[in-house]
Amino acid sequence: MRTLSRLLAISTAPGCPAPTPATAPTELGPDGTAALVLRPHDHSYAEPDLLTLRERVLTGKGVAELAAPFAAVAAENGVVTVAADWLGMRQLYGVQGEGWAAIGTSARELGILAGRGPDHEALGVFRLVGHFLDQDTAFDGVTTLRAGHGWTLTDGRLTENEIQPGDFRVEEAPPTEEAVRELADVLRTSMEHLLDEYPDAVLQLSGGLDTRLVLAAIPPARRVGLKTLTLSANDSGDAATAALLAEKTRMQQEVIDLSDLERLEPSEVHRLVLDAARRHEQILNPLHLAMLEWVEEQTSDAPRITGLGGELSRGMYYPMQRQHSGVTPKLVNRLAKWRIFSLDPVDSTCLDPVFARESEAATMSRLHDIFGGMSGDWLSATDAYYYRQRYHRAVGGVITSSCTEHTGLNPLLHPRFVAIAEALPPDVKRGSRFNARLLSALDPDLAALPMDTGVRPSALMAPRPLALIRTARDKGTKVVHKTRQRLSRRGDIGTVHSALARSLVTYWRSEPRLLEPVAASGLVDLGWLDRLLAGPNIPAPATTGFLALLEGALSPG
């Protein structure tokens, strides 16, 4: 089956001239069908044949049976149809012009094709939240494909079509014990099928709870000799925790030391970051995307098992939040400043003062509009925000960045897991209690081993007051460590990002012309930019990454 890493398709209305792209539109080949991920598969990990894939894309029937991430394109009688997975994890882009329309895998390419500049409102949201919201991109008029939808392109029109949903949604979650039993069975069965179809798969193993769920679902006998991959960074307990798990289960462990990135020359870092910004469409901070790109260069193209998105069943936005009967503006404001806004936001002093002021007001207004459309209690509204926004755009952004480099295998994206996790009431999910109970049902021994935070998952299962006592005892000095991270707004890989930022700024100071398009954008304070290039201070990674995003989006080439 043919897989494309790039797609560009253009359609014009009769009599209308076609815009001229910088590179030629994609040739789909004689069968008119291609996958936009490596080796698409269904929820049992079986790969459809080309005719089945083509029929599903053209009709929309059965698309929901294909596992995320997924996307494919098919052409028939001059009509181009593109479909993506039901969760929208594979990001695709489209633009509607005057008498013409186009779809593709590059938002930047479509923005250049349409002669569109940067979307200031969307970039204002990005600089605070760390990802885009809804269907926004960095370019005015260029949008992403909505989750659960497809596009048809014909006669210069881009038409959105809802794909037929599967039968996996639930109106109400089953009782907790029943949900634990059902999802334990779903994960065990899923992992059996996965390893049958992909015996060479590599488990991306961290010290956290989500990948441990995936590991626990693998039968003990099949863990022996299983290859694992762990990213090691300063301030992270991932490597030590993963090593303990690998030793106890007799898996093979490969560790990639991210500190090797600190030894790259500034010119190499600039190339890596700029390529990542352009290849991955300004989805996330280019420093983080560059790190992921570099990791891909160090690894094989073997199928990769991950647990991305497990926050869906453990209430990502619950910490420091009390339950309330509904959404209020005060609650939205507080959540935005504590959790939705990035741990490492773009420094407002680097921005044009008007843009900084207006973007913060616009972002808060946008969040109020999003939460205003949600009914029910407050914590459930935060779950809905995660599911409809961060799940699609941030988690999907990470997945999209590598979906043509290796086959992504994620049992936590199984539709039944997603449906039940979304429907579970907050008191069941709070404090990761449900995931801890599920882990204990799958493998009590793994539930008793500490995570990278120092907490044993089994300690999370107790009623909340007792759980707080047990986890506080487990955490010890880790509580202080994590609190400092939160207050300093740094994550575990902050030192790696800081090293990339330092090298990138060093290169800009040697080649200041590179930031001329950024200076002309009207988004950055020119005095601040002059002081940056004069030295010696290095901005925080998010601020440096935002400048890199703008360079990648606005500079020619």
Description:
β8 and β9 form a beta hairpin. This protein is globular. The chain has two domains: 155 residues, no CATH class; 285 residues, HUPs (Rossmann fold). With 557 residues, the protein is of the alpha/beta class. The protein has 22 helices and 14 strands.
Topology:
Elements: E1 8-12, E2 33-35, H1 50-59, E3 71-76, E4 79-84, E5 93-96, E6 100-104, H2 107-114, H3 120-129, E7 143-144, E8 149-154, E9 157-162, H4 176-197, E10 202-204, H5 209-216, H6 220-223, E11 227-232, H7 238-249, E12 252-257, H8 266-279, H9 286-298, E13 304-305, H10 329-340, H11 353-372, H12 378-400, E14 408-409, H13 415-423, H14 426-429, H15 433-442, H16 444-447, H17 464-475, H18 477-488, H19 494-510, H20 516-519, H21 526-534, H22 541-554
Parallel strand pairs: 10-11, 10-13, 11-12, 13-14
Antiparallel strand pairs: 1-6, 2-3, 3-4, 4-8, 5-6, 5-7, 8-9
Helix pairs in contact: 3-11, 4-15, 5-15, 8-9, 8-19, 8-22, 10-11
